[in-house]
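I'm stuck. Please check this protein.
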Amino acid sequence: MSTDAQPTWRERWEDHYASGHTPWDTQITPPEVEAFWAAGRLGGDGLALDIGCGPGTNVRYLARQGLTAIGFDIALQPLLTGRQRIATHAADIADRTHFVQADVTRLPLTGAGAAYILDVGCFHGVRPTERDSYVAGIVANLRPGGYYQLYAFDRTPEMAADPDRKLMGVEDNEIAQRFTPQLTIVEIIRARPDRYPCRWYLLQKP
């Protein structure tokens, strides 16, 4: 990392993983994701994308459902960890799991026809000026009838007052404003509070 300039977004995340301070890496798929798949809204085939996948816990889960799962993350280290975990503990699904280092506001694919796209805590950290690019990538890669499931922090006054987090979080009506009418909101569930109030959003492409 350069010592005479602000670290890039990628470098910040590489530093997080290098330090070992990764409390989000629980290796547990959220029950809300499991509930989605248990509800039978989609069959267990096709393509799934995990946006901001980290070490790939949910990539493995989605592959276990029978999907081909691709995880995207801006940092390389968690992707290497994810590949190692699959090689060690889930070699039977290795051919259905893939990891790509990429900026999630500039996904390196379009028209992928994904049945399901998941984001557990990535969108709410994207700079507001880059969120429309993120949205365009989701819309371009989701097939008609496919679902996008998002977990995000609400933007709170406390967050806005924190210099390190003032651009984080999602405004009350922001998901509707940014994603509709390209996607339709199916449900919004207020989640058990994390560090900040948070919600799960489920959207579908008409």
About this structure: The chain is about 30% helix and 25% strand. Residues 1-5 have pLDDT under 50 and may be disordered. The two ends are 44 Å apart (CA to CA). The first strand starts at residue 47 and ends at 51.
